Amino acid sequence: MNKDYAVIGLGRFGGSIVRELIELEMDVLAVDIDENRVNEYVDIATQAVIGDTTEETVLKDLGLGNFDNVIVAIGDNIQSSILTTLLLKDLGVKQVSVKAQNDYHARVLEKIGADYVIHPERDMGRRIAHKLASSSVLDYLELSDEHSIVEIMAQEKLADNSLLDLDIRAEYGVSVIAIKRGDDIIVSPDPTVNIKEDDILIVIGNDDDLTRFEKSLINN
Ligand code: ATP
Predict the structure, then answer these.
(1) Which of 20, 118, 157, 159 has the most CB within a 10 Å radius?
(2) CA dist., res. 170 & res. 217, Å (int)
(3) How far is CA 100 from CA 37, 85, 114, 119, 127, in A?
(4) Which positions fall inside the RCK C-terminal domain (predicted)?
(5) Are 135 and 200 in contact (CB under 8 A)?
């Protein structure tokens, strides 16, 4: 069996990662300390096993050191999450992605070598807030602490202007990297071609600049 991914902690977050990876035809080893949780995933994951991942022997017995990708989705028990992450990095797992419960937890995880720290509630809150604040914003994806990508509906406000006319980069310091037009995606769009009302602009930039750009679309 080619176990591509291991997911530790089968709450709502870990569980949904297992389901999506399986949907994407990946092999997934699902691990939880709680037998009931494991039973829920016996028919879903490639393999589901009971185990306390704060014990090094358990990780070794499960062969977790051979995985390239392990997701630690233990949220509430911060101590277990940290210990598990530390042990996985010690065992040589290349990419350890960990769900953080709060900013302190995140900082510790980064210090001990977690490769990708996820803040599901915070990030989803941000995405939803941006969508709610402006009818033009379709999605908001954080790239780093300071940079994001926003999907913006052109609507009347931007339609019938070219990127050159709008001069978005000079005005707001953000760049339109692609335009979704129906089923097509126009990468690096020609700045002289007019934008259409139904176009979706994929805009990348610093968060402050993106916020200024979003605000300019709200009230006018
Ligand atoms: P979610 O917010 O994703 O729904 P949850 O609140 O249900 O999660 P958490 O406490 O965040 O639960 O933990 C997620 C899962 O991690 C639980 O199913 C729990 O049994 C499991 N878990 C906790 N500690 C360990 C451990 N040491 N080893 C393996 N699994 C663990």
Answers:
(1) 118
(2) 16
(3) 20, 11, 11, 5, 17
(4) 135-219
(5) no
**Last residue of one domain, picked from the residues 66, 93, 118:** 118
Residues near ligand 1 (Cβ within 6 A): 8-14, 31-34, 37, 52-54, 73-77, 80
Question: What number is the average pLDDT over the span 14-41?
Answer: 96
C-alpha 40 to ligand 1 mean position (Å): 14
CATH of the domain at 46: 3.40.50.720
Q: What are the pLDDT digits (tens) for 150-170?
A: 999 998 889 999 999 999 999
Among 89, 118, 147, identify where a domain stops: 118
Segments forming the whole domain that contains residue 208: 122-218
Is 77 found in the same domain as 16? yes
Judge if 129 and 63 occupy the same domain. Answer: no
Residue of 13, 16, 18, 32 best suited for mutating to test ligand 1, as the one with most atoms within 8 Å of CB: 32
User: Is the pTM of the predicted complex or chain greater than 0.70?
Assistant: yes
